[in-house]
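Q: Hi! First time asking for a complex rather than a single chain. Here are the components, and I think there are two in total. Is that enough to go on?
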Amino acid sequence: MGTDFQPTRESTPPPNVSYQQSVLGLAPNVHPLKSHKNPFPFILRAAAVYPDKLAIAHPDVKHPAFYTYAVWAQRIQNMAYALIQAGIRPGDRVAVITPNWSHTFWNIVDPNLSSLIATSRISLRILIFLRLFVMTQAELGDPYESFLSAGRVFSAEKGWAGLDVEPDENAGAVLCYTSGTTGRPKGVLTTLRGSYLAAIGNVVEGQISRESTYLWILPMFHAAGWTYPWANVFACATQITMRSVDYPLIWKHFLDSGVTHYCGAPTVQIGIVNDPAARPLPRTISAVIAGAAPTAHLISQLEQKGIKPVHVYGLTETYGPFTRCYDQPHWKTLTLEQRAKLMARQGQSFATAQDARVVYPPQDENDEELRDVPKDGRTVGEVLMRGNIVMKEYFRDPEATRKAFQGRHFHSGDLAVWHPDGVIQVVDRSKDLIISGGEVNNYPCELSSHPHVLEVSVVARSHPKWGERPMAFVVLRPEHAAKWKDNHGGFATELIRHARTLLPGFACPEWVQMVDELPVSQMHNIHISKTSTGKILKTNLRKVVAKL
Amino acid sequence: MGTDFQPTRESTPPPNVSYQQSVLGLAPNVHPLKSHKNPFPFILRAAAVYPDKLAIAHPDVKHPAFYTYAVWAQRIQNMAYALIQAGIRPGDRVAVITPNWSHTFWNIVDPNLSSLIATSRISLRILIFLRLFVMTQAELGDPYESFLSAGRVFSAEKGWAGLDVEPDENAGAVLCYTSGTTGRPKGVLTTLRGSYLAAIGNVVEGQISRESTYLWILPMFHAAGWTYPWANVFACATQITMRSVDYPLIWKHFLDSGVTHYCGAPTVQIGIVNDPAARPLPRTISAVIAGAAPTAHLISQLEQKGIKPVHVYGLTETYGPFTRCYDQPHWKTLTLEQRAKLMARQGQSFATAQDARVVYPPQDENDEELRDVPKDGRTVGEVLMRGNIVMKEYFRDPEATRKAFQGRHFHSGDLAVWHPDGVIQVVDRSKDLIISGGEVNNYPCELSSHPHVLEVSVVARSHPKWGERPMAFVVLRPEHAAKWKDNHGGFATELIRHARTLLPGFACPEWVQMVDELPVSQMHNIHISKTSTGKILKTNLRKVVAKL
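A: Yes, that's all I need. Here is the structure of the assembled complex.
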């Protein structure tokens, strides 16, 4: 890769480049923990140590781009000066409207997406704090390149020393919008300190190193890409970006580009292992999975290809992953089913996280006392988190912030049990919880163990006797779809029978509906692409149910 | 290992153990960065995630000890309560006088070393802040075990929740005494924040993971073991300790105990590769080298055994390693000599460090301006550092502190050149620098490339014409010692001739003296063992020279 790369003249650092910043006023034994923002030490160190290493590649487009760390750092510096020239000042927010890599123009919208601005309810310069490093462009002569080049001229070669350091590590960093699977979007404001430590957490947990190549399948706008944009730079790894999720292209990079790491929701993982190009890999790739628990079948399929699944759990409010399901040495002796059951659990706190716990719901909105549920694997409570990789606040929403931090812990809204070994297992989003006869009964994992099932989602449907009962929406595997095409009722009976062998009666679905695909959340910051985050949009399923 | 381990009753955590701490008063999105001190999150998380994993082993003694993370954490908790019971309060300092592992009694002196107390100029409770986690003991019924057991009783099973968190991450952590190679010892006070980030830096740089086994060859008292005691716990690795540096034992563990990492000065590395038990290893071991640059010969010997040398540089004032000589991908194509020359350089800042730079000396003691030397690989200046892994202060020595932080950077006292690729190379300790005709000329690395030389150290000797000229003290390799036994003059001529092929004339030694061994610094905190830190004590050589 990368032989045809010709950076613009302004993308080349000067021969005597210095990566030193002005630090006047800071105590000599402290520097603010910052992974990004103008200027950010991760990229400066990477450029100082590995100036000629391939930092980021966007190969699969008409004008491929390949930037070394030195060139990338220079482009980021140009961008910083360009923004200053354009009148952007500390505290301003700059919108980023772009796929993982893009033909962008300032400020900062991909031309192919510019039609969205008119329809977006979110005005420009409010969306996201500047994520400089994803702002890159290979095509010469376009408005974005002109913008960067003007920044270089405006800098008058003052370089990094001419850019101020943000001294407050608790200052706001990125503003990401989260919809969850329900409710209206909220702006999650994170900090520089939190981003620094969450990124390092991901490096350590993922064992990302300068030998690593990370493939961007996860959208960068999804909780700021779980801090992986900075994690990879901290580790001096190489990043490959794609404009959209394209399974044949993913396999091309798996096989030809030395990919070692990627992240994705289970729906994306299912797409990967079921692509016709899928085959056993010559070396192990680490796949970080979040958003839902991987099933035994998916784990088996991934492992057969040489992909090692790592199950993590978190929210936009926790910079992405906050807990990890740590596999234990003795798991090696277990059967796949036993192992999958353990791996489906959400786990324990990350290396740089602090507490994750499961507590009984508060008595009322003034109840600040936290009462842990017993670690019995049965009692359901809410997952609470605290520590450096919890967000600062919901942007301009003090009431939602107050509510989210009741008892000085972040309330995830996710319901879970706590196992005797300290491992947390989410039973479902509390908002999606189905109560049938007073019991928690939403177990899509168990349903998807049926060999004909590709994907499944379960929502509540009102029931005359039980209040609510589960209804399953199922996508069949292509090779089995024909068999049930004209016999939906037969498959429903078959699936409920299968469920009864695995689950108590109250947990089995009352109704089963076959669908061609499950509706997927497309709205995080802005509609960008189908399956962009891979989170199943249960609100849409509920609308279907409401009409039944 | 570890089959005969029976922890005391009080070392076993309760069945419902909780690793949660009281965090009242802390903001929900911040927790203090702390790697240790009472209580410290690294060990709590390791015990929560891997309770039954072997955390630390001290196998080669009459009563071997093997502690799992759960047991170790419990013992540390017992220790905390025992100290509270004994009247120790925040701000008190507790002495630690012990080898890397020991039969200790409170407070806290190894019985075999207790005679030192009478002769030590340093009174108890002043030496070192409590390093709880190294306080361990296998022998039942001894005073240390009784002390811990009493702590458990005193705790009344209040557990971790009964111990307060230190909310200030910039509070003092460890007090380590440094002598350098000259001068009187100074107490280096580090912080919790710095220890946390330095430890993570070592994990990332060393790629230490839960699969790793770290062998303690480096003394833990040497700059707090370069933060490796915490780094290994952060990574959930296994640590093996030895009472002293014992080369056959080191090879036993290399071959039989799955060792993956260790640290040591070049003198220790030389001892390792020249031990009769040395042989090619079945898997690569990572050896972190600091204190002096490894020679081409040493690098070659290590690599032949399957030991991968990593050259780092730092001081007690920087928690140990601050820079690393990052090998570049294209080095693979170089000859050993070319590579060794590049690897001998001290490198660039660590992942969690900030700036390391080389500046001209200040004009006077009020000169706060920093003037970088040109990156030409020739101009000599002083190495300055700043950032989170620089010490807080010299303990009770504001004048030394002020002087060390002139210009708001830490002054290492080490002289170096700055290469065009941004890499720093120390030419020698400024205090040891020999000026001959106005030139820097101390190049022991070049001298030790002679095939008959095992070790060499160079000091200044007064010279009628040049002021000072270099005198080399040389230890010959055993296999070549006989040849030169009665012909010291012949070897001196031979070595000077060899030096002239590699060095400019001013840099060649004027005199060569053969010795059986080089004097090694034994005084860091206290005299403990010969070759305890492996730093050659040039003051002793100067005394020899002064009498000539």
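A: Chain B touches chain A through 53 residues (CB under 8 Å). Let me know if you'd like any chain examined more closely.
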